[in-house]
Amino acid sequence: MVDAVDRILEQWRAERPDINPSPMGVIGRISRAAQFLNTELRGPFAAHGMQRWEFDILATLRRSGAPYRLSAGALVEASMVTSGAITNRIDRLAAKGWVSREVDPDNRRSVRITLTDEGKRIVDDTLADHVANENRILAELTPDEQAQLAALLRKLLISLDDRPAAALRPQGR
């Protein structure tokens, strides 16, 4: 089996035999896979009237556990966007009735974002379709191959300093 990256590597080996292009094969495939995945993941979100970033924020709140509430700062850390961007996104989600925002009574400078009942319903409905879509995408890989790939990608991400967000603890329990 040959993919598009194989052709690129073949060309580099012919033109620059003094350089080993093997790293380009790994990075190129990860980059191409990311592009394909971004396209493939849109469908279930669009079917539920949402965008991927909306699902990401709602899912972050949902998996935080009842009462499905996090500080705005925790959402910034989880989403890797600026505080200005998260404010805009929370405004848009609140306008749809999927989240509510309130001042933290323990810290008046902090805002707590809570998943509404409608937000919980939409994220739960979307989650089932999203996971089914991911299963479809990965169907060519055996469960063992999926586990190997996940382990290798985890190792790579950790080496690039990707760590879990420490601030993702529910607020107001």
Write a brief structural summary.
The protein has 173 residues and is mainly alpha-helical. The chain has helices at 4-15, 22-47, 52-63, 72-79, 83-95, 117-137, 143-159; strands at 69-71, 99-104, 107-115.
Major beta-sheet overview: 3 strands, antiparallel
Identify the strand order in the major beta sheet. 1-3-2
How far is the first residue's CA from the last residue's CA?
53 Å
Rg, nearest Å: 20 Å
Low-confidence stretches: 167-173
Structural class: mainly alpha
Query: What do the pLDDT scores average to?
Result: 90
Q: Shape from CA axes?
A: elongated
What percentage of amino acids are in beta strands? 5-15%
GO molecular function, one term: DNA-binding transcription factor activity
Keywords: DNA-binding, Transcription, Transcription regulation
InterPro entries: HTH_MarR-typ, Tscrpt_reg_MarR-type_CS, WH-like_DNA-bd_sf, WH_DNA-bd_sf
Pfam family, one: MarR_2
